[in-house]
Design brief:
The complex is a heterodimer of chains A (about 600) and B (about 300).
Chain A: E1 20-31, E2 34-46, E3 51-56, H1 62-70, E4 78-87, E5 90-91, H2 97-103, E6 108-111, H3 115-118, H4 125-136, H5 141-154, H6 160-164, H7 173-185, E7 191-195, H8 203-220, E8 223-228, H9 231-237, E9 240-245, E10 248-254, H10 255-260, H11 265-273, E11 292-307, E12 312-328, E13 332-336, H12 343-350, E14 357-362, E15 365-366, H13 372-378, E16 382-385, H14 399-409, H15 415-428, H16 445-457, E17 463-467, H17 475-492, E18 495-500, H18 503-509, E19 512-517, E20 520-526, H19 527-532, H20 537-545, E21 569-571, E22 581-583, E23 589-591
Parallel strand pairs in A: 3-8, 3-9, 6-7, 7-8, 13-18, 13-19, 16-17, 17-18
Antiparallel strand pairs in A: 1-2, 1-4, 4-5, 9-10, 11-12, 11-14, 12-21, 14-15, 19-20, 20-23, 22-23
Helix pairs in contact in A: 4-5, 5-7, 7-8, 8-20, 11-17, 14-15, 14-16, 15-16, 16-17
Chain B: H1 9-13, H2 22-27, H3 30-47, H4 49-52, H5 89-125, H6 127-142, H7 145-155, H8 160-187, H9 190-197, H10 202-238, H11 250-257, H12 266-293
Helix pairs in contact in B: 3-5, 3-12, 5-6, 5-8, 5-10, 6-8, 7-8, 8-10, 10-11, 10-12, 11-12
Classes of the chains: A alpha/beta (about 600), B mainly alpha (about 300).
Organism (chain B): Parasedimentitalea huanghaiensis
Membrane topology (chain B): Multi-pass membrane protein
Main location (chain B): membrane
């Protein structure tokens, strides 16, 4: 069954016959208006051991391409209307479904973006792995178990025996993705398709998974198609790159050549809008330190976890522990950290969505001491922009009404004045006033985020909390939204609390940065201090892990990252140790190990 | 069927302008217009019953029975035949529409309002308010509805409006349950959190942002409820605690005659058809209403 065993291991051999050959592939969708093509004339070949990256923004057709290869296009609406997909000279498109099933998972395997949803939540990891192996190899349960264990060991899973009997929800995101990789590679497929394999993962976990994928591919000689929107990942992983845009191939080439001398305008624009990490020195440091708008002192947010028969509090999640910082007028203060570090919790506490202990002072008044009416008035000063603009706009309201709503709530102006102001806001964020009558679903992702920004600006706030506000957007759109945000600071003097997991974006937009780890700030300082001279080990680890969009970049060896972040959930009597922040000069605060 | 003036069909095919009233858009849907026509027909029939038929609903006519004393099948004198007592069935169905419309629309509407209020309040506020309301709902669900209805109907003097009230007090439970779970998942959505950060109050969030999203569910439950309430009324009448004979209702016509189903099938068939048609009519209108009121469906016909 393992027909690929004699395949040459090692890096890719350009002269060998291609494993996968896609020619003139056109996929169309059946609409009422007739066939509409989703991708047109895609041709490429994949050599043994090679990594081919298909890069492009959302809607470019990269996932459709991969589904077409897997034969997983949703019938009968979407189907291949032209072209060939040959796997070792077999045309996959002519095969019946039963034969396709043998090939899927066995000869071509796939890893999906969201590891939680691609694993069955009610089966143990071991059972799922064995099932996948036994589906293609006629072997016994015992042998399948042994092979599963081997596969888990191969993906460098800690305590593989224990993992076999665990369920998906007991594993972290990174571990789940490793299980998916183990499952995909257990049968030694000829081709591995990885569809945004690390997009849902934290940056340090992403680094581990990418390294694992590269090592495994080198050892097994599997050819890989890597589908991603992240040019950093492309630069680090790929041998060859295909750039796609709205269903068509724009450019194809060797990774080095494509990054250093892109031929097409679209590729150039795409590469130009990728945020790049510097050392934080490029900032135009100005006298931005205005009066402080928000002062956060000893902020703590804890969630009780109840258990036992009587529903007593047995554990607590220490989401935010003793956080102190100030945000000054007109500056962009960034909070970075990985998921679960408490950065969004701080945003919610500031926006009045969560109860907290400690003090939050906004424009001089302490929130806890305010009456209800005063608290409502202070909401005008702090506005929030969420991550997903579609989810944060009521889909049943016209966008003009949505932007005018804050004015209505706070009873500002007459109806005519309000619509005039809304028109002005629309104009300011780059939309036309004629679009006010439309509904949120009629806009693109970037336009929706502009609507959210207009909505936040309606009350002329002093502080805007942007919680991962650009993370869901394509890079080119992201760059434009960030530009808009920057202009607004200069024009209106708005301060931002910018929350992100993306170090490169933070490095580009922020004035001051705080790095969070397990609910505490471990390093804080101005951009040049944190990025130019990172002191805390975790900060270095974060910066180190960011994929660099430059294929010639040599990653310093030796720094292999391992281990998952511990859980912030603790037993009642077990309170976390508070980090001591020490000023190492000019306001650069670092948590000192003891 | 087509007494009601339908809008010019040529109109519906032309490109429609951006903004139109919900009613105008509703009238462009053929099925909705058809549903409207059926409802209107029922209402007109109920209101103008005395003028539409020469008989009285209570008249036990000598001509209405065969020599053996069996009910007459449909004929030119008695269009839908007669019942066991020699009363004209068409007349009884027309007069029965008065009862059934009141029960189907008023009782069901009341049940819907109670269910919505309780479900939405519990789902939005949660905590002890929600807990208490939902435990009460569970209690009502566990309690046999018919028994409760009989108790309530026995306490009060039976009359049409009391029956409507009784039906409303037992029928709101399912609506409340369904709307509770929908509201609690809506309340978790990010746009509600976004509204809170703007300083929006509870009333604003509930009425402007949560209720519009519940409209489809409410409409579905409302239309489904029509047939169940009409039948519940029939059950109550059958047990002697509903509308008192000889007053006609669609439900009690069926119940009075069900034992003679084999001998005189039209006696069960025609009133059942009336119930089905009314429920269907409301369903068609409800469906169209749901689509018309949902802006996210616009341009995706």
């Amino acid at each position: 069954m393992i027909g690929t065993a004699e395949k040459p291991s090692g890096a890719y051999a350009p002269d060998a016959a291609p494993v996968l050959q896609v020619s003139n592939l056109t996929v169309s969708v059946n609409t009422e208006a007739g066939l509409k093509s989703l991708i047109r004339n895609i041709s490429f070949s994949l050599n043994p051991g090679e990594t081919l990256a298909i890069a492009g923004e959302s809607g470019s057709g990269k996932s459709i391409t991969s589904l077409a290869i897997m034969g997983l296009l949703p019938p009968p609406v979407v189907r291949v209307t032209e072209g060939q997909i040959c796997l070792n000279e077999t045309d996959l498109l002519t095969l019946p479904e039963t034969r396709m099933r043998d090939i899927r998972g066995n000869r071509i395997a796939m890893i999906f973006q969201e590891p939680m949803t691609s694993l069955n939540p009610v089966m143990t990891i071991g059972a799922q792995l064995s099932e996948a192996i036994m589906a293609h190899d006629p072997i016994g349960r015992r042998e399948a178990h042994t092979r599963s264990l081997e596969a888990l060991t191969a993906v460098r899973m800690s305590q593989p025996e224990k993992r076999m009997s665990q369920f998906p929800h007991e594993l972290s995101g990174g571990m789940r993705q490793r299980v998916m990789i183990a499952m995909a590679l257990a049968l030694r497929p000829d081709v591995l398709i990885a569809d945004e394999p690390t997009t849902a993962l934290d940056v340090t976990v992403q680094r581990e998974v990418l390294e694992l994928l590269r090592d495994l591919q080198r050892d097994l000689g599997t050819a890989m198609i890597l589908i991603t929107h992240d040019m950093g990942v492309v630069a680090e992983m790929a041998d060859r790159v295909i750039v796609m845009q709205s269903g068509q191939m724009v450019e194809e080439g060797n990774v080095k050549q494509l990054f250093h001398a892109p031929k097409e305008d679209y590729t150039k624009a795409l590469l130009a809008s990728v945020p790049r990490m510097g050392d934080g020195s490029g900032a135009q440091e100005g006298g931005k330190a205005g009066a402080s708008i928000a002062e956060i002192r000893n902020l703590k947010v804890r969630f009780d976890v109840r258990g036992g028969i009587f529903g007593r509090v047995t554990h607590r999640v220490h989401a935010v522990e003793n956080v102190n910082f100030d945000i000054h007028a007109g500056e962009t203060f960034a909070l970075v950290g990985e998921s679960g570090c408490g950065k969004s919790t701080i945003a919610k506490a500031l926006a009045g969505l969560l109860p907290y202990t400690g003090q939050i002072r906004i424009a001089g008044s302490e929130i806890h001491s305010l009456t209800r009416a005063e608290a409502k008035a202070i909401r005008r000063d702090v506005q929030m922009i969420f991550q997903d603009p579609m989810a944060s706009l009521d889909p049943r309201m016209r966008v003009g009404d949505l932007v005018a709503e804050p004015l209505v709530i706070h009873k500002i102006g007459t109806a005519a004045e309000r619509s005039e102001r809304v028109a002005m806001l629309f104009d300011r964020v780059g939309l036309s006033a004629a679009q006010m009558e439309r509904y949120p679903h009629e806009f693109s992702g970037g336009q929706r985020q502009r609507i959210c920004i207009a909505r936040a600006l309606a009350l002329q706030p002093k502080l805007i909390i942007a919680d991962e506000s650009v993370s869901a957007l394509d890079v080119s759109v992201q760059a434009k939204v960030l530009e808009l945000m920057r202009e607004l600071t200069e024009e209106m003097g708005v301060a931002y609390l910018f929350i992100s997991h993306d170090m490169a974006v933070v490095e580009n937009i922020s004035d001051r940065v705080a790095v969070m780890y397990l609910g505490q700030i471990v390093e804080m300082g101005c951009r040049a201090q944190v990025f130019g001279n990172p002191q805390h080990a975790y900060t270095r680890r974060l910066i180190e892990a960011v994929p660099v969009p430059d294929p010639t970049y040599e990653r310093p060896a030796g720094l292999r990252l391992a281990g998952d972040i511990p859980s912030p959930m603790r037993r009642l009597e077990d309170t976390p140790k508070l980090a001591k922040l020490v000023d190492i000069g000019e306001g650069h605060l670092v948590a000192m190990p003891d | 069927m087509s007494i009601v003036t339908t809008p010019d069909p040529a109109n519906s095919d032309t490109a429609r302008p951006e903004r139109q009233s919900a009613l105008a858009r509703l009238l462009q849907r053929r099925l909705a217009v058809f549903g409207f026509a059926l409802i209107l027909l029922t209402v007109l029939g109920a209101v103008f019953a005395p003028w539409l038929t020469p008989y009285s609903p209570y008249d036990q006519m000598f001509d209405g029975l065969t020599i053996e004393g069996a009910p007459m099948p449909p004929s030119s004198t008695f269009l839908l035949g007669t019942d066991l007592l020699g009363r004209d069935l068409l007349t009884r169905i027309l007069y029965g529409a008065r009862t059934s419309l009141i029960i189907g629309v008023a009782a069901n509407g009341m049940a819907l309002i109670i269910g919505t209020l309780i479900g939405v309040t519990a789902g939005y506020f949660r905590g002890w308010v929600g807990g208490m309301l939902m435990r009460m709902t569970d209690l009502m669900m566990a309690f046999p509805a018919l028994l409760l209805a009989i108790c309530l109907a026995a306490i009060f003097q039976p009359s049409l409006w009391i029956v409507a009230m009784v039906i409303a007090t037992v029928n709101w439970v399912q609506t409340a349950r369904v709307l509770y779970s929908e509201t609690s998942s809506l309340a978790e959505r990010e746009f509600i959190a976004a509204e809170r950060t703007l300083g929006a109050g509870h009333m604003r969030i509930l009425f402007k942002h949560i209720l519009p999203h519940l409209v489809p569910t409410i409409i579905v439950w409302g239309t489904l409820g029509i047939s169940t309430t009409v039948l519940l009324e029939a059950t109550l009448s059958f047990l002697g605690v509903g509308v008192q004979p000889p007053v006609a209702s669609w439900g009690n016509i069926i119940f009075e005659n069900q034992t003679y189903f084999q001998a005189a099938p039209w006696l069960v068939f025609f009133p059942s058809l009336a119930i089905v048609v009314l429920a269907l009519a409301f369903n068609l209108v409800g469906d169209a209403l749901r689509d018309v009121l949902d802006p996210t469906q616009r341009g995706r016909n």
